[in-house]
Amino acid sequence: MMTDPFGTNTWFYVFRQEPGHQKVTQQTLTLTFNSGGVLTNIDNKPALTSQ
Predict the structure, then answer these.
(1) What string of pLDDT tens digits covers the 51 residues of the chain?
(2) What's the CA gap between 5 and 12, in Å, rounded?
(3) How far apart are CA 27 and CA 15, in angstroms?
(4) 16 with 25: CB under 8 angstroms?
(5) Does residue 3 belong to any structural domain of this protein?
(6) CATH assignment at residue 31
(7) What is the 3-class SS of the chain, one letter each residue?
(8) Please, what's the largest Cα pairwise distance for the chain?
């Protein structure tokens, strides 16, 4: 888990996986909290794809 260096209202969870000798995949889950500590947003971003 990484935390936002500019405040504690956003938490980042980064999941990175390399199964066997396949390509590495990464997914990022971002949780945003209000000033009262209540979860206000969940953003689940899939892996970036190269074009």
Answers:
(1) 666 566 678 888 888 888 888 888 889 999 999 988 899 999 998 766 554
(2) 11
(3) 5
(4) yes
(5) no
(6) 3.30.1450.10
(7) CEECCCCCCEEEEEEEECCCCCCCEEEEEEEEECCCCCEEEEEEECCCCCC
(8) 45
Q: Which CA distances in Å does 39 have to 1, 19, 24, 30, 34?
A: 16, 32, 30, 11, 7
Q: Which pLDDT score, from 0 to 100, does residue 51 have?
A: 47
Q: Is residue 4 situated within a structural domain? A: no
The answer to whether position 42 is within a domain reads yes
Which residue, among 5, 10, 2, 3, has the nearest Cα to 31 in the 3D structure?
10
